[in-house]
Design a protein that fits this description.
By secondary structure, the protein is mostly helical. The protein has six helices and no strands.
């Protein structure tokens, strides 16, 4: 009886041990299967990552080539700008020389104008003197006519009164002397008139020369104005070149940004968004700059479960996402 109980107990223990071993083997088989499934999944994820890594390497290579092209364009354009700056400096020196020449010409013009005014004053004086001479000539002609009238009257009186002949002869002699003096004075006035006419002609010739010189100076001033306009056009070209350089610099910065982006979550390029925040945003379907730019600040705060003590500025994230989406010009 005791042996049977012992054998039964032993058989029960062996059976329990075998059952436990079988259960452990089943559990181990399931774990091995799960491990194989996870291994297959990990291998598939690794292949996907390798494919994505190769794609990103190709994108980085393309961005590097674009960056090198942009740098070469920038170098060539800087050389062009340097050459244009040298030309502008030369034009500026030429303009300075022209301005100095214009200043000297302007001084000469002022001197010529002063000389012309002086000559005009002399001309006016000569005209006034000529007018006075003509008035004196007219007065002497009137006196001469009066004398001739007196002579005629005296001759009539001589014809009527022979007895007063001696007295009349004396009067006639005096009148003849007066007429001779008047003729001498008239000759002097005529000489002064000729001199005044000569001075007037010389003044007109000098005025013509001054006018020709003034016309030359005005032509030189027009040429200086043309040079100034050329300098203004060159400055406008320089301003356009500066804008082009700024555009190239922006393109280079964009290329650097794309190079920094390779291998990262796109949203992590925004200041303040780390891997954890980026993962939460991705879980809610926000994967690009443009998608983040379309969200509201309160919506983003709810997605990332922002606490009151956290200092993340979500509105800055949205503004930066809008700027990056516009700059990169992609589907970000």
């Amino acid at each position: 009886m005791t042996v049977e109980v012992i054998l039964a107990a032993f058989v029960g223990l062996v059976t329990g041990a075998l059952l436990a071993l079988w259960l452990d083997s089943q559990t181990l088989v399931r774990r091995v299967q799960d491990a194989n499934a996870e291994k297959s999944k990990a291998h598939a994820d690794l292949q996907k990552f390798q494919i994505r890594h190769r794609a990103l390497e190709q994108e980085v290579q393309a961005v590097k080539m674009a960056s090198q092209t942009a740098v070469q364009d920038t170098t060539q354009f800087e050389a062009t700008i340097a050459r244009q700056l040298a030309e502008i400096e030369a034009s500026r020196d030429q303009l300075q020389t022209t301005i100095q020449t214009n200043e000297a010409l302007r001084e000469n013009l002022l001197e010529a104008q002063d000389r012309l005014e002086e000559l005009e004053g002399l001309s006016l004086m000569a005209e006034e003197k000529l007018a006075a001479s003509e008035a004196e000539h007219n007065r002497l002609v009137g006196d001469f006519q009066l004398v001739e009238a007196e002579i005629a009257l005296l001759e009539a009186k001589v014809a009527q009164a022979n007895d007063a002949g001696q007295q009349a002869q004396d009067c006639i002699a005096a009148l003849e002397q007066k007429v001779a003096a008047a003729e001498v004075q008239f000759s002097a006035i005529e000489a002064e008139k000729d001199l005044a006419l000569t001075q007037l002609q010389e003044a007109e010739l000098t005025a013509a020369e001054q006018n020709a010189r003034i016309a030359t100076l005005e032509k030189q001033l027009q040429e200086a104005e043309a040079v100034r306009q050329e300098l203004t056009a060159a400055q406008e070209k320089l301003h356009t070149a500066d804008k082009h350089i700024q555009t190239l610099q922006d393109n280079v910065e964009d290329a650097h940004t794309m190079m920094q982006y390779s291998g990262k979550n796109e949203l992590q390029l925004i200041r303040g968004i780390g891997p954890a925040y980026a993962r939460r945003l991705n879980e809610f379907g926000i994967n690009s700059f443009s998608e983040l730019a379309k969200c509201e600040a309160q919506q983003i705060a709810t997605i990332i479960k922002k606490k009151n003590w956290q200092v993340a500025d979500i509105q800055d994230w949205i503004d930066e996402a809008k700027a990056l989406a516009a700059r990169l010009g992609s589907d970000a």
